[in-house]
UniProtKB/TrEMBL annotation, chain A:
Descriptive protein name: Pyruvate dehydrogenase E1 component alpha subunit
Key word Calcium present: no
Cofactors, names only: thiamine diphosphate
Superkingdom classification of source: Bacteria
Organism whose genome encodes this protein: Streptosporangium canum
TrEMBL record, chain B:
SUPFAM superfamilies: Thiamin diphosphate-binding fold (THDP-binding), TK C-terminal domain-like
An example molecular function term from Gene Ontology annotations: magnesium ion binding
Enzyme class, broadest EC rank: oxidoreductase
Any GO BP annotation: response to nutrient
Superkingdom field: Bacteria
Key words, A-Z: Oxidoreductase, Pyruvate
EC number(s) per entry: 1.2.4.4
Domain Transketolase-like pyrimidine-binding: 1-176
Keyword Oxidoreductase: yes
Name listed for the protein in its UniProt record: 3-methyl-2-oxobutanoate dehydrogenase (2-methylpropanoyl-transferring)
Keyword Oxidoreductase applies: yes
SMART domains: Transket_pyr (SM00861)
Native organism taxonomy: Bacteria, Bacillati, Actinomycetota, Actinomycetes, Streptosporangiales
InterPro entries on file: THDP-binding, Transketo_C/PFOR_II, Transketolase-like_Pyr-bd, Transketolase_C
Length: 307, 327
């Protein structure tokens, strides 16, 4: 799908958007570095290359909307809360962790944001939340992020059926990065995401651009319709720049190169060098400072502890 | 040889020996070879019989059952054992039932492999020990990988039963060595049971610990510290098949003080099933009830310092033995 990616110049972003994009990028790079040095426990999945997806959606979602995230959720969280301290503390098990260090990278709950590490299971839950919102808070929606691989799970279809049947304000954001762990999409998906949405009579919108302004402009009216209880599947054709989790990248060099060629980071640096370089260094330094500060904190404490 | 290599060799052996054998699961194909590398080399050597699937645990388990139904041998890998919850219906209501619910025995040669347990910081949905949820299903046998049981023999034993089996593989075992124990100990096999004793003149141990394979090294570490620090002697029994458990095979090795140690969180545990079987046989001869050692009644946290508080470790077992001996 690489060929379909729009190679035009990326339009200029406000400093705020670019800062957020860079914050997510440097956060993820820092995580891989910390793992590499053995300073983090467990595992993590970075959204390197896909940062622009939640950043583009950010102004289209409000504080009353529910967001369901998945294993690759750091960008979703940072775009919602701009809280690298709390997230890093969660991942490092330090004081100030969003969920006390219990959930870790992929199990996070804050306000109306929730993530879990079991593929597909949040779709029916999001449908239930959307049902509630439709009745009690019309105009709000439930947004759920899933990958291409997650379309293997039956729960996805049971939820889509309900969303269409009951006309739920459900926004399904598909980050189709062409791969699920080690399995290319072509080896795990018959048909297409669009075809599957169509089977339920659900509107499907394909995003091939990585231009945040352009994506927003196209999505704004569609998301407004979701708020009128018309479910929507938005499929981003995107690229996973890094490994699935830590060091498990066995993709052929060509696939990794394609992801690099499409990376918004290099493209934006090329298209808007002054703005990029004015912000990139400071954001990188800020993340470094946050990592140092959080690492020096005492271990997190778990309040609601067990029997 | 590491346990994961032994298991990998066992799967190679099975596909080699049995031309009807299939291996099915997510991300199991080369060059990736599975999330824990247990299926490495299989798809290269047996293309066509090693099948990578979409993220569809219910379907892949059902497919394994369908292959078994048509006379094949099927081994399914669930990437993280936690996701076998998505295959619960296929196992509980289809595969295990089909063995007997049609009025005559319908043999199914299938094994569902479940990388299990915590200690690696993977968090609440990737660290569980779900054995207890499968205990007591007629037509379903449960086995656990151990460093003292050759996996090729265990695979053979599971398939010979002609009914679906779930094979729990404690993830922390993968990188440990087969058959490795401290020189203090000696290991012998009695059928499906591994018996680990202190080296030296035969004497009755002060306590006997029954533990599945994943808990063995922690139990042995506790036995070592109990001996060195407290002069308490112990024996470890590691059954390969957890359910149905051959309780009678344990009897010759038991004394007055018995503990069952497992990683499962508290409540409805495998150990309580074992305790009941032993109480029925040994009630008058035990100094006290069989003592259960398990993780706390809690989700398994991600952060290492919190995870350690929840999961059974060497010290949990050590303290449980001392309490049991104090009466
Ligand atoms: C039910 C379930 N099965 C398997 C996994 C293991 N797993 C975690 S992420 C992943 C791949 C997901 O692929 P995709 O949906 O395309 O998302 P991506 O990782 O590409 O962002 C797999 C198989 C899981 N977390 N949950
Ligand atoms: Mg994907």
């Amino acid at each position: 799908m690489t060929e379909t990616l729009d190679r035009l110049r990326l339009s200029r972003l406000g400093d705020d958007d670019l800062e957020l994009l860079l914050q997510v990028r440097h956060f993820e790079l820092k995580l891989l570095e910390l793992y590499g040095r053995g300073e983090l426990n467990g595992t993590t999945h970075t959204c390197l290359g896909q940062e622009y997806v939640p950043v583009a959606l950010r102004p289209l979602l409000g504080p009353d909307d529910h967001v369901f995230s998945n294993h690759r959720g750091h960008g979703h969280y940072l775009s919602t809360f701009r809280d690298p301290h709390g997230l890093l503390a969660e991942i490092m098990g330090r004081e100030g962790a969003v969920c006390g260090g219990v959930g870790g990278s992929q199990h996070i709950h804050r306000d109306r944001y929730m993530s879990t590490g079991v593929q597909g299971e949040s779709l029916p839950v999001a449908a239930g939340v959307a049902l509630h919102l439709k009745r009690t808070e019309p105009g709000t929606l439930a947004c759920v992020y899933i990958g291409d691989g997650t379309w293997g799970e039956g729960a996805v279809y049971e939820a889509l059926n309900l969303a269409a049947l009951w006309e739920l304000p459900l926004l399904v954001v598909v980050e189709n990065n062409g791969i699920a762990q080690s399995t290319p999409t072509a080896a795990q998906m018959a048909g297409s995401v669009g075809g599957r949405a169509a089977a339920f009579g659900i509107r499907h919108h394909l995003v091939v651009s990585a231009d945040v302004n352009e994506i927003r402009a196209a999505l704004a009216p569609l998301v407004a319709e979701v708020r009128q209880a018309r479910p929507l599947v938005v499929e981003f054709v995107t690229h996973r720049l890094g490994p699935h989790s830590k060091g498990d990248d066995i993709r052929p060099a060509g696939a990794v190169q394609a992801a690099r060629d499409n990376d918004w980071y290099g493209r934006y640096a090329h298209d808007h060098p002054d703005q990029f370089h004015r912000l990139d260094g400071p954001v990188r330094a800020e993340i470094q400072a946050i990592a140092d500060e959080v690492a020096a904190r005492p271990p997190s404490r778990w309040e609601g502890t067990c029997a | 040889m590491r346990v994961a290599e032994n298991l990998n060799a066992a799967l190679h052996g099975l596909l080699d020996d049995d031309p009807t054998a299939y291996m099915i699961g997510e991300d199991i194909l080369d060059p990736y070879g599975g999330a824990f590398k247990v299926t490495k080399g299989l798809s290269t050597r047996f293309p066509g019989r090693v099948i990578g699937t979409p993220i569809s645990e219910g379907a892949l388990t059902g497919v394994a059952a369908g292959l078994a139904l048509t006379g094949n041998t099927a081994v399914a890998e669930i990437m993280f054992g936690d996701f076998v919850a998505l295959a619960f219906d296929q196992l509980c209501n289809f595969a295990s039932k089909s063995v007997s619910m049609y009025g005559r025995r319908l043999p199914l040669r299938m094994v569902v492999r479940c990388p299990t347990g915590g200690g690696r910081g993977y968090g609440p949905t990737h660290s569980q020990s779900l054995q207890k949820h499968f205990v007591g299903m007629p037509g379903l046998s449960l086995y656990e990988m151990s460093p003292f049981h050759d996996n090729r023999a265990v695979l053979g034993a599971m398939l010979e039963r002609g009914e679906p089996c779930v094979f729990f593989e404690d993830k922390v075992l993968y990188t440990r060595q087969m058959d490795q124990v401290d020189p203090l100990f000696t290991v012998r096999r009695e059928g499906g049971l591994a018996v680990v004793d202190l080296r030296g003149p035969d004497a009755r141990p002060d306590c006997v610990i029954i533990a599945p394979g994943g808990m063995a090294h922690r139990a042995l570490a506790a036995m070592r510290s109990l001996l060195v620090e407290q002069e308490i002697s112990g024996r470890l029994l590691v059954p390969s098949r957890l359910y149905p458990l051959d309780a009678d095979a344990l009897l010759p090795f038991l004394g007055e003080v018995v503990l069952v140690a497992e990683e499962s969180t508290a409540g409805g545990t495998w150990g309580s099933e074992v305790a009941h079987l032993l109480h029925a046989r040994l009630w008058g001869r035990l100094r006290g009830p069989v003592r259960l050692v398990h993780s706390r009644a809690s989700v398994i946290p991600t952060a290492a310092h919190l995870e350690n508080e929840v999961l059974v470790g060497e010290s949990t077992i050590h303290h449980a033995v001392r309490e049991a001996l104090r009466g």
